[in-house]
Amino acid sequence: MQQTSDGGGPISTETRINDRIRVPEVRLVGPNGEQVGIVRIEDALRLAVEADLDLVEVAPQARPPVCKLMDYGKFKYESDQKARESRRNQHLTVIKEQKLRPKIDPHDYETKKGHVSRFLKAGNKVKVTIMFRGREQSRPELGFRLLQRLAEDVTELGYVESSPKQDGRNMIMVLAPHKQVKPTKGKPAGDDVPAEEE
C-alpha cells in the first residue's frame, strides 16, 4: 500500500510515522518540544521505543526531515476533533438579514425585533439594514438611533459585532449571538412599545 520511493517527495499527504520514515537521518524534537538535533533514523526509532512514543514526521520538506517524539494516536484524535469542530462552526455561521425603515411604526418594529431575536436564539448572525429614501437620507441619526435601540432590546441574546455604518442609501449593523444562548421559553416580547421616532 505504501509506495514511496527513496529520493522522491512524499506521494500522499498522510503523515509518516515510525518505520514508514525512510530517510537516513532526521532532525529530532523531543516530546516537550526540546531540540535534540540531527540523529540517525535508527537512533530516533530506538528513543521512540524506549519512551513508549511514536516517531512522527512533522516537516517532511525540511532537509533533513523534522520528526517529533509523541503519542501519535492522541495527536491524531485531537487533530480530528479540532477539524470537526472547525467544520461544524463554519456550517453554523449563517447570516440572516432584516430590513427596516428609519420611520417604522411600533407594531412593525416589534415584529422585526421578534425575527431578529429568533435568528439570534437559533445561533445565527443578523445583518440589520436601515433603508433610507428621499429626504430621510439627510437624517442618518434616525437610523443610528433605531439600530442602537434594537441592539439594546436584544442585548440578552446577542451583541453588536459590526457597529452601524453608512453604506450608500443604507445603514448596516451586524449582530452576533452570544456563545451558547439558551432559548427563553414563554417570555413576553416586551411590555413597553416604543413610540415612533420623528
From TrEMBL:
Region Disordered, residue ranges: 175-198
Predominant location category: cytoplasm
Protein's GO biological process: ribosome disassembly
Subcellular location: Cytoplasm
GO CC, alphabetical: cytosol; membrane
Listed NCBIfam families: infC
Annotated PANTHER family: TRANSLATION INITIATION FACTOR IF-3 (PTHR10938), TRANSLATION INITIATION FACTOR IF-3, MITOCHONDRIAL (PTHR10938:SF0)
Subunit architecture: Monomer.
Protein family per UniProt: Belongs to the IF-3 family.
Official protein name in the record: Translation initiation factor IF-3
Protein encoded by which gene: infC
